Amino acid sequence: MRIGVVSDTHGSKSAMRRVIEKAGIVDLWLHGGDYSYDAEFIRKVTGLPVWVVAGNCDGRSKEEPYEFIELDNHLIWLTHGHRDRVKHWGSEALLVPARSYGADIVVYGHTHRPDILRSNGIVIVNPGSPSEPRSEPRGTFAVIDIQGAEVEATLIGLD
């Protein structure tokens, strides 16, 4: 299974179009919040399922702050990260709650900084932002490949 991962799109349809094009064939999308309504744009353009959470910039979004998705014997915890203090503690802040939830894959956003952390069987992925990068000269997103027990995450920069 191949999963497209994006967060912090902030309403940029041009950035989302570039992400969709560059991602190639994926089975579904995860959106880590901040302009969570952009998930509907991804759904319309790709025709694929999209899971999304509310971020700190989503106001009165109908989306939940956390989603838990079971795929191919893996539990994915999708969060924006602002409630988990990722700006202060980084992706390490998500390890303890991930273990308590039983999640082996965590996807978050909020920092606009792409990152992948592997720790004791847990893979934590922040795709960065395709439209407002903070630590990269260009926007980024991620792809997660699941093959049985193997989970591989890749960060991809936009041209």
What can be said about this structure in brief?
The protein is an alpha/beta fold. 19% of the residues lie in helices and 33% in strands.
- How many beta strands in the DSSP annotation? 10
What is the C-level CATH assignment?
Answer: Alpha Beta
Strand order of the largest sheet: 3-2-1-9-10
Query: Kindly state the mean pLDDT as a whole number?
Result: 93
Radius of gyration: 14 Å
Q: How would you spell out the order of helices and strands?
A: EHEHEEEHHEEEEE
For the record, give the distance between the C-alpha atoms at the N and C termini, rounded to a whole number. Answer: 25 Å
Basic shape:
globular
Number of helical segments?
A: 4
CATH fold topology = Purple Acid Phosphatase, chain A, domain 2
Note down, in words, how this protein is organized.
It is a single chain. By secondary structure, this protein is of the alpha/beta class. The chain has a single domain (2-157), classed as Metallo-dependent phosphatases (Purple Acid Phosphatase, chain A, domain 2, 4-Layer Sandwich). It contains four helices and ten strands. It has a five-stranded mixed sheet with strand order 3-2-1-9-10, covered by helices on one side. Strands 4-5-6-8-7 form a five-stranded mixed sheet, covered by helices on one side.
